[in-house]
Write a structure and sequence with these properties.
The complex is a heterodimer of chains A (439) and B (316). By secondary structure, chain A is an alpha/beta fold. Chain A folds into two domains: 186 residues, Periplasmic binding protein-like II (D-Maltodextrin-Binding Protein, domain 2), CATH 3.40.190.10; 215 residues, D-Maltodextrin-Binding Protein, domain 2. Helices cover 48% and strands 13% of the residues of chain A. In chain A, the strands form four sheets. Chain A has a five-stranded mixed sheet with strand order 2-1-3-12-4, sandwiched between helices. A four-stranded mixed sheet of chain A has the order 8-9-5-10. In chain A, helix 2 runs antiparallel to helix 15. Chain A is globular. The termini of chain A are far apart. In chain B, 73% of the residues lie in helices and 0% in strands. Chain B is flat, with a radius of gyration of 26 Å. Chain B contains 14 helices and no strands. In chain B, 30% of the residues are buried. The longest helix of chain B is centred in the N-terminal third of the chain and has 32 residues. Chain B has 316 residues and is mainly α. The chains are: A alpha/beta (439), B mainly alpha (316).
């Protein structure tokens, strides 16, 4: 009797172990940043589990540690992530160092065409070398830098009259950086609803990528280029052109005139906090935050309007967003590829957009009704048509840190001139490219 | 203990040693057994201290990048060192570090010693205040860095409010101002670590025998003379030891400053260790950062040695 019981218990334990082991086998981990769209992806992925039986586990890390955490994971050949929604700049390193699985054969086999996605996003999020038909990611989350403004303040007759009296023109969302500064100066220190408000919140963060993303929003609008000839790394007179110098000086003047006090190290979350708490009239941030902001109980609905990155000499926006890649160190690559196949479906992409994710699929973006689906949808399309990204070289992190230092030194710490900052940046980047064998 | 008692103890220890071990040890000299016992420690020391040190020195002469495992590692001689010594930025980080270390030490020694003298008077509630003063030291530096960003916040922070209240300065941007940011980190470090200096000084003060002061009283020494000829010389070794520990700690200060200023504004508070981390684990210039680490190591080691010699002189 006793041995019979023991045998039964052993069989039970064995069966339990088997089922939990196979359940674990049918589970993949997706790594991304911890932000609003990630929550939408969790919701969306429930359909994938229902459809395939593959469970999804998520590893989300705050933006401030995102690059550190996951680049270390990739560099150490870690198996934590089966799928990774990595930043656009990582694609060069992901491809060159073998972190990402090349997806060309898989796309061909499954009939996934990159022509079904917005070309700018395919180039930015999927290809390496840039523009070559070597795909290491599927465009997952389109994003660009955009702006929001306090629509209720802009439509207030008293404020409108005061602005007209001061500037001689109507108060409206700025179309150029010059207008943006004029509006910001107007609001700076003004009292609205019994509270002192400020002009604008811009990116000034030092540690990761903040001030570079913010300053390039101005630089691109002035016509900034990284190279004179693409792929030649000839940066002199491109990076430090008179237009670039003017743009950087302008960004510094905007920082000096119109941000709230203590704004020397602000990025996405700090900007959101400043805007949501009613401190600023305008805010620079990523489109990814607009769905959440549109629903915000303090500043959402009719209180907030949206506009694309203002032009100065050209129309251009800083690229955000990411592609989704299969990590080559994963032991569940086949399951991860199933997710990619599922995610590429037009109906999934439509749902992705409806939940708050930014689809890059043409079936979503080219839909005649797309522009009316959200108050910022039309601006998103406009922004994505003129996006520019930072270097996507394998050594991008080194290039980024150099720019963070030089720009922060000049804009926030008031060290040297814009010309010196950009000249020094070229010197830093030249050393980096020499070390990397590109020069 | 008498020789007989020792023999007795040794006999007991021998009897209680398991027979298997006795058989294995038989024939080994005392020296061999001693080596056998310390071998694991020596091995660990070699594996986790000495080997990495030697390996770092080797890497500092190469172009190695830890994130590019397939890349050919080339011997580039002293190029990394030349770049470091020729870089104005690096000198800037070292200056920022020196400024931080020197001022934190000066201020903490003065306040810490003062507090120790005060606490040593054994007034009513001295134990309670000692505990209160020690609290900051028990917190995590990263947490301290984060909450001081709120304290320093120009619009809502209490620090700005207090300064404005007394000096009418308006919103004071401690972290964002180039002139004030280096002092902002010094203030936080002082708040956190002065108790450490205080507690060591207090230990020194409590170790001074009363008869010295009684003899000084008989000799009609005044308070200043008692402090100068008895208190200070007796406490100095403790104080110097505290400065040595804190100096080394502050030379490699990282977490608190990163959370507080991220090295900014610009590079104003970018201490050597913050830059070293950026070079090693953000830019992945492993060879270059190894060279920088070696330079920092030699600097701390050299200064530490000079200081320890001075400490021994004071002791003797």
């Amino acid at each position: 009797m006793r041995s019979w019981r023991t045998a039964l218990a052993a069989a039970g334990i064995a069966a339990f172990s088997f089922t939990s082991a196979s359940a674990q086998d049918k589970e993949i981990t997706l790594c991304w940043a911890a932000w609003d769209p990630a929550n939408a992806l969790v919701e969306l992925s429930k359909d994938f589990t229902t459809e395939t039986g593959i469970k999804m586990k998520f590893e989300f890390v705050p933006w401030t540690n995102f690059a550190d955490r996951f680049l270390n994971e990739l560099n150490s050949g870690g198996k934590l992530c089966d799928l990774l929604i990595g930043d656009s700049q990582w694609i060069g390193g992901g491809a060159t160092y073998g972190h990402y699985v090349k997806l060309n054969d898989f796309f061909e086999q499954e009939g996934i065409s990159m022509d079904d996605f917005l070309p700018a996003t395919v180039r930015a999020y999927s290809t390496w070398p840039k523009g070559e038909p070597n795909y290491y990611a599927l465009p997952a989350m389109g994003d660009a830098l955009g702006w929001v403004y306090r629509k209720d303040w802009f439509e207030n007759p008293d404020i409108q009259a005061a602005f007209k009296e001061k500037t001689g023109r109507d108060l409206a969302p700025p179309a150029t950086w010059t207008e943006l500064k004029e509006v910001a100066e107007f609001f700076q220190g003004r009292e609205i609803d019994g509270k002192k408000v400020y002009g604008v919140s811009i990116f000034t963060e030092r540690g990761s990528e903040g001030i570079t993303m913010g300053a390039t929003a101005a630089l691109y609008s002035w016509g900034f280029k990284y190279e004179n000839t693409p792929g030649k790394y000839d940066m002199d007179s491109a990076v430090n052109s008179p237009e670039s110098v003017e743009a950087l000086e302008f960004y510094k003047s905007l920082y000096e005139c119109c941000v709230p006090p203590g704004y020397s190290d602000a990025y996405m979350v700090a900007n959101l906090d400043a805007y949501k708490s009613g401190q600023v009239a305008m805010m620079m941030n990523w489109f990814a935050f607009w769905p959440g902001l549109a629903k915000d109980e303090n500043v959402g609905g009719d209180k907030t309007g949206f506009f694309v990155n203002p032009k100065q000499n050209v129309e251009a926006s800083t690229l955000g967003g990411q592609g989704i890649s299969v990590v080559s160190y994963s032991e569940k690559k086949d399951l991860a590829l199933q997710y990619i196949k599922w995610f590429a479906k037009p109906e999934v992409q439509k749902k992705w957009w409806s939940l708050g994710g930014y689809s890059c699929h043409n079936s979503v973006l080219n839909d005649p009704d797309f522009a009316s689906t959200a108050p910022f949808a039309a601006d998103f399309l406009k922004a994505m048509s003129g996006v520019q990204d930072f270097w996507q070289e394998p050594i991008y992190a080194e290039l980024l840190q150099a720019m963070q230092k030089r720009v922060h030194d000049y804009v926030v710490a008031d060290k040297g001139t814009a010309q010196e900052a950009l000249d020094q940046l070229i010197a830093d980047w030249t050393i980096s490219f020499e070390d990397d064998g590109k020069l | 203990m008498t020789t007989g008692a020792i023999d007795n103890l040794a006999d007991k220890a021998a009897k209680s040693t398991p027979f298997g071990m006795v058989r294995r040890m038989r024939g080994l000299s005392d020296r061999a057994i001693a080596w056998l016992f310390i071998a694991p420690t020596v091995f660990l020391l070699l594996a986790i201290n000495i080997f990495p040190l030697i390996w770092t020195v080797y890497l500092s002469f190469t172009n190695f990048r830890a994130n590019q495992p397939g890349r050919e590692v080339r011997w580039i001689g002293t190029r990394n060192y030349e770049r470091i010594f020729g870089s104005e930025d690096i000198w800037g980080y070292l200056q920022a570090t020196a400024h931080f270390v020197v001022w934190t030490m000066v201020i903490q020694v003065i306040i810490g010693f003062g507090l120790a003298l005060l606490i040593n008077r054994n007034f009513r509630g001295a134990s309670f205040w000692t505990t209160v003063i020690l609290i900051p030291m028990m917190l995590s530096p990263a947490v301290v860095g984060v909450f001081w960003t709120y304290i320093y916040q120009p619009q809502t922070g209490i620090f700005s409010y207090i300064i404005d209240f007394f000096a009418n300065t308006g919103a004071l941007d401690m972290i964002g101002s180039v002139g004030l940011a280096p002092w902002s980190i010094i203030i936080v470090d002082t708040w956190m670590w002065t108790p450490y200096i205080m507690i060591l000084c207090l230990a020194g003060l409590r170790s001074i025998p009363d008869y010295l002061y009684e003899a000084a009283e008989i000799d009609r020494a005044n308070a200043l003379q008692k402090f100068w000829y008895i208190t200070l010389p007796r406490v100095l070794p403790f104080l110097m030891l505290a400065v040595l520990f804190r100096g080394i700690e502050n030379f490699k200060m990282f977490d608190m400053v990163v959370e507080l200023t991220s090295g900014g504004p610009g590079s104003t508070t970018e201490l050597a260790s913050i830059n070293l981390k950026r070079e090693a684990f953000e830019k992945w210039r492993t060879g270059f950062s190894s060279a920088f680490a070696v330079i920092l190591f030699v600097t701390v080691f050299g200064l530490g040695n000079i200081y320890v010699k001075a400490l021994n002189r004071v002791k003797s």
